[in-house]
Records
---
Amino acid sequence: MTAITESTILVVDDSAPKRYLLSNWLSRAGFAVSQAETGHEALAQIEARDFDMVVLDVKLPDMSGLEVCRRIKADERTATIPVVHVSAHAVDVTDRTIGLVGGADAYLAEPIDPQELVATVQAVLRYYRALRKAEHLAAGLAQLARTTLAVTTANGFGELLTHAAAGAARLFGGTAVVAADVLDGTWSAVRVDDTGRTDRRDWTPPADDAPIGFRCQSGHADHWRLPAGWLDDQPLTVASARLRDDLPPLYLFVAQIPDEDSTQLLTQLTQALGAAAEAQRAQDLDHRIAVTLQRSLLPRSLPALPGVELAMRYEPASTEAEIGGDFYELSLLDDRLLIAIGDVVGHSLHAATVMAEIRHALRAYAVEGHPPGAIVQLVDELMVRLLPVEMATLCVISIDAATGRARLANAGHLPPLLITDGQASELWQRAPLLGIGHPRPADLEFTLPPGSTLLLYTDGLIEHRGTSIRDGIATLHQLARHVDADLDAFCDRLLDRLTTPPNADDVAVVAVRRM
Amino acid sequence: MDNVSRPPQASHEVELAPGIVRVSLVGEIDMGVEGAVAGWLTEAIRTHPDRRLEVDVSRVGFLDSSGIRVLLQAQARAVREGGGFRLTGAQGTVREVLEIVDVYGLLTGDA
């Protein structure tokens, strides 16, 4: 914002001597002055360039000064230009009132005292200056509030940085870059320009001992290793926010900020962004701890059994999603292979612990020598008695490695596929999920011929919102009909084709091939 | 700021018929609304213990395992504390998922 004395004033008067006098007084007081002789000429000049004020004679040859003022105030582009009326004639109170009601900010009548003119002009300019500053600040604060809300409710670091840079770009009217450590020393920077175009890159910060709290300094793109074309060739304002010594800072880069009000907004914005980034980091860490714990609750190695090849995959849900409750079990009991897959209802660390309880219970019942149906029945009873609000689906299969004869008990889980000679068939056994204590049918008995493959999976592989489960299973059929020579490659191919990261749900896949 | 203005995923309507309190669920019933749906159903049982609770899901487009749990728990409560339970209107994917976990007959009384 320019200083008051650098303001440009348009003096409008049809009398040349009076125009000369008014201009002369204002010039000597330090204002830049432009002149117009008629109302139309004045409006044309105002249309063509910016003025900080118009000093306007009430009586003009082509139109009334009051009308010129009305037009200035009626156009939203010029409505904030202050107008001071000057009148050559002795005027009564009514004339002044009409002028002021028409939108003028002051009314001076002859004889005009030079000092009074300059003092009036300065007073009106001071008032407008304060008004614009307040409006600017209010708009800035509203934008700050919107950006703070957006980053606080962002879903993941990508969204957070994008909202942050977009908010800063709008707030400071140009390109803005926001950078943060998004995962264990991996930095990401997002740039948003004044048209809203967004670009995200990996970034390596230079050595910097950012202080705790807020820092604002001048800088240059080169020093900060910003990608080429990002805020090059101009002095920058670089703000950082850091919550603690052991936590990385967040950086905000914008073209140099001119005034103190903007610096205030920058301080508040950067601090809000720093806090939001920290909350996001804590949430991501919680998720990683939960995923690590969940993985530790699943089998860590596959049993070795002559004549049988095994492969399994577990893919957790993305960091944006919650923890899943999928589980699987593969163990060797004498010459029988026990395979189980299931899914605990709910997505939380709690679901993962329930999964571990179910898995250990079914292993214990299997060790006691129970067949699959009895194992499922016992786990169901255990859940009804000891885990009354939990529910889970579970499919247990026991295979005699020597003969390939198998027994299956399912409790509400998706049907395993048996793939023989390029044909896949679904092994359906309808029985309710675990946790409701419903009677069970007899075990389903079948044989795994040499060369055949058994595929078990959870809903994350085939269920997607908006498509039917039938269609999902049919697609899996097509992809699984031909089993790759390498069973691991088979599992990878299925996951690759049927899931699209970031996964909303976790996925477990178990494949068993009889040689 | 889509995540701020996102509309609610599910809503419900309650109506009374002779001997029946009918709760119609609308939208997507998943983990995000599990608590809310459980509350609606419990409230219907509590306020009308002498009526059978009928849950209509004909306007539900998606139901996940959390949704199934809510229905089963409401059924258990309605049988214990109210006048019975019946699920109506399950179709498409909703019916499919209820059939896969084999509780469709249990919930509709068509077993």
---
Amino acid sequence: MRLSIPLGTAPKRVTIRSAEAVTFRVPMDLKAEDSQRTIAPFNYLVHLTAATAGGKEVSGLGEAQSRPHQTGDSHEHSWPFLDEALARLVGEELDLRDPLSDIRSRIRALETKAGESESLPVFPFRATIMGIETALLDLAAAALGMTVADLLGRRRVMPTPIPPVLRHRDAEAIDRFFSGVSPRQRRPLRLLGTGDVEADLEHLRHVATSRSRLHRSSAAQPLWMNFRGRLDVEQAHHVVRTAVQWSAEGQLPKTVILQNPLPSEAHEETMELQRLADELASGYTTSPDVRLLARNAGPDVTADLVKSGAAGGGLRMINLRPAQIGGVLRTLELAEEIRAHSPQAQVLLTHFPGASRITTMLHRDMAKAVPNVEYLSTTADVEKRFRVSGRRSRWRRTPLLRLGLGLQPYYEDLVTQARARVLHPTPPQPAVGNKRPNTYGDVDYISPIGAYAVHGHIVEREALAHGLNSWRFNKSSIVVSDTAGTQLPFRTTRWPLSGVVAASVARHKEATRILLKRAGVPVPEGRTFHEGDHGLAVQYAQRIGFPVVLKPAEGSMGVGVTANIRSESELDTALEMFSKTAHGNNEFIVEKHINGGDYRIMVIGDHVAAAVERIPANVVGDGVQTVGQLIMEKNVARRANPHLGPLKIRWDAAAEYQLHKVGYGFDSVLPVGERVYLLSTNNLTQGGESIEILDDLHPSIQEACVKAVQAVPGMGYCGVDFLLEDHTKPLEEQDAAICELNAMAALPVAEYPVYGTPRRLSEQFVFECADAFGLQAQAQRAENLNLRLTIRGGIKGVGYGRWFARRAARSGLVGWVKSTGEREAEARIYGPTAAAAAMVTVAILGPPKAAPESVKAIHVQDDLDTVEFVLLNEAADEGNGTGIEPGPGGAAEDFEEASNLESEGGSVSDDLNESEVAEEQLDAEAIEDKLEETPDDR
Amino acid sequence: MIVEPVVSSRVEPPPLASVNLGLPMPFGRCPADLYDGWVLHEAALRNGLNTLLFPGQALMAFPGEDPTGGVAFAHGVANSTWISAATMVQDKRIRRDVLDAAGIPQPRGRAFSLQRGRTYAKEFAETIGYPVVVKPMVGDSTVEVMPRLRNADDLDQAIDYLWKVPPSRANFTQASYAFTQILSPKTSSSTRTRGTYRYLVEEHVAGQYLRLLLADGRLLSAVHAPGGPWNLGEGVRDVTGEIHADIEAFAQGAAEATPGMPVLTVDIVVNDFTGPTAHENRPVLVEHSERPWMYLQHVADERRISELGHELLQSSARHAGLTLPGSGMGTQERVTFRWEGLSQVAEDIQAAEAAAGQMQLDLRFTSTDPVAGVVCGEVSGPPAVIALLSEFVIDGHVLTAPAMAVETRPA
């Protein structure tokens, strides 16, 4: 059976031109009650492009759901494997006369290359290989003008999605539910067991009764209960007996599916239960149909099940998960085998939670081709948050016209979601215009802390590095002390050397301007006007001299701002325009326009400690990649910056506008060496770049900065925002002005610049304080730290110890962690300063459900008698079984329970929205730090 | 669009009382949050200092020409107060930990989030027993405290109150130097606080409520407020001379535990403030603030305010190495002034003249510049009232819009 309508002549082969892979984290609510993860897994997008001999271009997409325990893909190994595999594919010819054989042999070669290891008896990287396989199948199908279903050999038109879950257990709610379902709707229903056998059976019967009464059209549809592996063998026997009996008596529908009655490893026992059910059923004339469904399993167990079913019967239903058992073609082969030996067996085709539409489209197509598929999972979780792919064509959507899976990468979202990316062949680096950004060795330690909390971390790191102890309360607050007990509080750059008045004054731009002007520091003259005072504003502009800027007194993001107004008539026009904007009825500011670059100059005490020029987000063309790909490349490269990594270039209306102004679009390929700016503002938070230039900063500019800071009483630290035409020239030779003082300016801006010299301001912070308050800090920076940590707060039962041990081990630390009470744990850590200090900061975060309240880090002298990192008294760490990565067959990894709720109106996706990009996925504290740091949205 | 439930609550925090100044309305009362700044402003004028005042009650008081050559305050809080120390005590969960580590007894308490905390908060309240006190975790001491919640229903109501977005709450105020919290709702159409907002549930402690004001470790004032600082009925009185030395030592201990605050207010509850602090009479610290909150001293004994203001000014002068010129002013004095950042000069002049009349000040303008938004003039009257006018000019009580800077110099 084939549905695709052939158009034109099918090409005989295609040559692969490029191969791209993009890693993204699967969006998940890790704080959800049933979440068993502490970190979201990666999926890989595989994108191949190819051309026919006639020059026609085609592309193929695949997705790899890499899940270390289930698919043998651990990112640190599977990603390089994918990189290499893709590099080899470029230039290869795909034979389209027998595409499945060609693809099969290529996949076999990859499997061989992946090899087997002791810990993984079957070949590793199964998901990764399936991602490549999918892209090849998609490519071949697209080239041949058919769907993947038709390429694989279509057997049916429409598959059935896995039925939805009814979560209500309350009798009234169940009745209400069935009363509300359309009588025309006929579908099976799934229920969740609780482990209380009698209650679960009663629930099953109640749902059946209620459905027969209130929704007769579905009365004969199967009922399905997932026991989530909570029964023992005896209880499972009881359930099977009762189900068969009740089904025979008509209290349950004819078909009842009992899913996962026993723990995950008990596959053979589940087969025995099926044999029992079949035997019992044979005693009734009504032939009840009770089916046992074991959990999905890896290739070995699945093969055993198939063999056992073939030998002794008992295989009536099986869950095949292609990514777990070894790919598309292997699944097809396995299903053929099942059909040959157990023709009655129904196949469920499922994928892991956290699939994008690429995977669900593939599974839909597979379900049309794989024999005996009865149900398949169809939920694209990823697309609830962002898009990985979009349709290739609006009109080629039907199975008659669709080419392959019909999808192409959706770079608009991927530019910010990409965690890693490879492209083969590697595009040439333009010789000019594209300096290499700085990279930082501590990025892996620091990145879990989050962009805005980095400045809360680095002062603690330096304090610890210089022999001081620390006491941390949240991401940004610490108390630093020496052995004599002198305590100094810090909240990021709120430190003991600044007073309350400095913070108060710097918050008011207008107050700052007046104060600085009195002190003889260059400021852009300006003032606030009442709405409608246009005449006065014009007089004022004449007095201070053109050009001027007009902007709303309150507001941000450049809305209502007109810059570089050069004459009275231009100002008249601008004021008229302004009165028509949303800000038109509000106060407005007229200010001298300074035509300069944007600099943030850091002053500590009485000297300039760093100076950073900020330029807007931009990309530089390489003659090969589109703007979208260049943005993604830049964002991925930026991940090597501990501070700016998560603060990416976004593709939005503002970027589109800027690009359009210079005649390009998102899909334009930029000429080699051409730089285009994607924003008009220099915000580092929106992908802007920082260049540290202190060595070239003219002394007169430095003097003006110090003078400005000293004009504010008690300002011990400040980020001076200076507009300068040329930072190397004397102040009097250029148009320049200080537009803002930031009492809370973020240290990492200068400590982790994209280009230029990194300046360790945090260390200067510690030394300044040590000098001022007589703290006994060591002059020499320690290479290693040996610390005792006391962690207090809500850390019980959330897997804190395991999380800590794993994080510490990954950071190369040695030591131990142990629970020491209901709300307390203790740890010893030893290792390189950057890693150990980051661990102290990260300890206040903990795994997603933890709520630590304080972490005390004290230097100790005694040596540790371990060479690794261990979790002591593991039992005390036990909680709800939260782990980094669920084990094989973990309950939370079962299909669709988390995403397909019938009764709760999509509450899960609402929850996801609740946490959604809660301001770029930051927690409240991080947003607050951001606010402090960026009062003017810089 | 999601329609949110209207937030309403029976339980609301008692407001901090405004202080009666004996002037005709609308200038007859000074709000509690402006009071300290005004007292220090008056003290500066009395000491013959020039003053420069900015929004957020940022006051510089100085001899000569250099505004940084004197002392400075924000809301009457000395600039020698470390910004990080003020920030730390405004986070009451951290403050609890720090004081606890120093062995200062406090009511049992724990922080909860709006989003997930309600059930746990109730469980915790059951554990420590009602009545309980609820207060925002981050914010100025004593502001929006809901004391004496008698049961789970009251607690529910208190949490409901906190769900109302802070800027729309009648009694919400925060210092101009406070940590920048996100106090806006998540969406512009919402009126609800963000779910990550946290509050503290604390045990209610019965006994005598005492406020102790210290400067440089020295006790300046003790006030007994039987109903707490929110209830200024009968019985609020100055007990500086009556408290036992142990109580003073207790407050000094609390001050030492939080370095960086030369002036601080410690609120305690004790059975008998005249007795030694043996175990039957152990004080419990309930509030701890960098802000003096002297409105309470005003209610207890108005006559002491000038002296307290002078003491606090002196303390700052010592830190700055400044010798005060001394009480240059008498009961009636004359200063020149300069107001900057006015947006409607003509209307503002009219409004200022009317206000000065009501405040019985003799005010005249000597120059006006509507284009630059600057006016200058002279004013004479009692220093306290001159200071009040300046504070109100900046705060927006007098002019069409707040001025951006007010400078005064003795004439």
